[in-house]
Structure formats: C-alpha cells, structure tokens
Amino acid sequence: MASRRANSWASVSSSNQKHVGNSNVRCNCGKEALIRTVKNGPNLGMKFYGCPLWPDKHYEFFRWVNEHNDMEENQLKFLEKDIVICELEVELKHRDEKIKKLQSKKAKLEEDLKHMKNELSEMRIEILKCSRNEKNMYMALLFSWILFGFVYFLS
Asked: CB within 8 A of 63, min separation 6: which ones?
C-alpha cells in the first residue's frame, strides 16, 4: 500500500484537482481534501483524496475515492441486514402459506377418512346381516327337506 501511495502521489498532475463541496473528507491539515487522479503506474486513472497543500507540504493524507468510511460501511451493513430480514420475512410468509395449504389438505383428508370409516362400519353391518340371512336361509332349506322327507315317508 505504501508503494501505491508513493506512486499515486508522484504521478498526480495539478491539473486534475477538484474541490468537492459535499465530500466531508478533510486532510490532516484540516482543509477539505481534493480529488486527484493517478496519472501512471498500476493504479492509472483511479481517483483519490489528497491534501490541497501538496506538493508544498506533505501531510501524508491519502484515501481512495471509492473507499467507504465507517458510517457508509455501517449503512451498507444495515441495508444488507435489512435485505436479509425482508428475504426471511418473504420466506416465512411463503412457508406460512404452505402450512395453511397443508393444514387444509390434512383437514380434508381427515374428513375423508372419517367418511370412509363410517362406510366401512355400514358395510360390516351389511355383511353381518347377509351372513345371518344366509344362515337363516340354510336353516329354512334344511327344515324344508326334513319336512319333505317326513311327509314323503308318511304318505
């Protein structure tokens, strides 16, 4: 980083200085920093804040223009957290909707199960009735043959 600063300071032209009204970036000397542009080296074209008294005085003030200060970084972190919270809220809402659909489906299936149990009970009752009728018919047939045999032998 020190070599980048040295290259940056050494390669700045005074024609590329800009006063920034709303920058709120101040040099160590207390004056508002200027935005300068790197003229050569590996950082060619990059913008940085520098002391307005440079090259006459060296206060060693340097900051890239695209670097964030602590407040900006905190704001970005806050926005990122806010986005995560919003995404989680949407996911929670989606999950709640799925839960409601599944609960509705469960209630319908429980109602269907109850209906099927009632039908099964009715079918068992019908089977028992048929079984009794079959036994009764078997007994009636048996008695009719016995009666027929008895009448046949007596006549």
From this structure: 25, 33, 48, 49
Q: What DSSP element (H or E) covers 115?
A: helix 70-154
CA–CA dist 70, 77 (Å, integer): 10
- pLDDT tens for the 155 residues of the chain, in order: 444 444 444 444 433 444 444 457 777 787 888 888 888 888 788 888 788 777 666 667 777 777 556 677 788 889 999 999 999 999 999 999 999 999 999 999 999 999 999 999 999 999 999 889 998 999 999 999 999 999 999 87
Question: Would you list the domain boundaries of the chain?
Answer: 2-67, 69-155
Could you tell me if 52 and 77 are in contact, meaning their C-beta atoms sit under 8 angstroms apart?
A: no
Q: Which residues pair with 48 in a beta bridge?
A: 36, 64
Whether 29 and 12 have beta carbons less than 8 Å apart is answered as: no
Residues, the chain: 155
Instruction: Name which of 55, 42, 73, 68 is nearest 13 in CA terms.
Output: 55
Whether cis (ω within 30° of 0) applies to the bond prior to 55 is yes
The distance of Cα 79 from the centroid of its chain, to the nearest Å, equals 17
Q: Which of 29, 30, 35 is closest to 15 using CA atoms?
A: 35
